[in-house]
Amino acid sequence: MSRPVLVPGPDHPITVTPHPGRVVVRAGGRALVDTERALELREASYPPVLYLPREDADLTALQPSDTRTYCPYKGDASYFSIPTADGLLVDAVWSYEQPYDAVPAIAGHLAFYPDRVEISAG
C-alpha cells in the first residue's frame, strides 16, 4: 500500500528558516544541544518547531526507539528516548532522516517535544 506524498501549498504551507539566536535543550539537568544553527519549521497552523543540527547534539544522551511515524509532507520520522535520573523520557525526540523534497533542510536535524525537555531559545 503506497502512502500519499503531499506538497505544501496555500492550504498547508510549510517554511523552514534559520532561527536567530542560540538554542539550548536540557533534560534531567543535562545539556543535550547547544547551537546557534537551529532551523525553525512552520507548518500550517501548528506551533513552530525547532530543528537542531545533530552535529551540535550530545547523541550519547539519546536512545534510539522503535517508534516510527509518517507525515505526508515530511516523510518518515524516527524517534529517540532520553534516559534521565528520574526515568526514561520516551520518544522525546524525532528526526526525519530522509525528508521529502519539500523540506530537505531538516535532514540531519533533531526536534524535541517541548513538554518533555527544557528548551531555551534566544
TrEMBL record:
Query: What positions does the domain DUF427 occupy?
Result: 23-115
Protein name per Swiss-Prot or TrEMBL: DUF427 domain-containing protein
Biological source species:
Nocardioides humi
